[in-house]
Amino acid sequence: MAEALLRAHLEDLEIPARVRSAGTMAWEAPATSDAVEVMRELGLDISRHQSTPLGVEIIEESDLILGMTRDHIGRVVSIVPAAADRAFLIGEFVRLAGELGPPEADEDFDSWFRRLAAARPHRRMLGRSRDEVADPLGEPIERYRSTAARLDAELREVARLLAT
Fold first, then answer.
1. How far is it, in rounded angstroms, from Cα 65 to Cα 69?
2. Alpha carbons 161 and 159: distance in angstroms, whole number
3. 126, 92 contact by CB (below 8 A)
4. pLDDT digits (tens, 9 = 90+) for 133-158
5. Right CATH number for 2-163 from 3.40.190.170, 3.30.360.10, 3.20.20.370, 3.40.50.2300?
């Protein structure tokens, strides 16, 4: 759901970007029927989505990594420790950018991401629990809807910030 939502928001702002999702579990599977239905309600088709396991190559090729839970971000950093300065919870990214502001006029994204990461409290798990978005897998469709609504709002803000 997050991949489709972020891609749509970036396209709406005419931001050329490659958006990929990867799962921290080892299996490959299609999107659940509830996820497909909820995204269809939002005008997005994820019926052909196939999960991809997270790996070194995906992490190293990514300029920005956004995860839903601290476990997701922790897994990214355990695989590629150098990715910590560009790996954020979605909510954490929005919160930190709200506190520090968008990139400066002459600041590239890598520098901005490092500045956001430096604002995290030291010696703590990356992100805060309030920044997490629980995976609705196995939950009723209403949980998928509430998760999609939160992701939609936060990823719209991520796209807006990347457009600055």
1. 12
2. 5
3. yes
4. 989 999 999 999 999 999 999 999 99
5. 3.40.50.2300
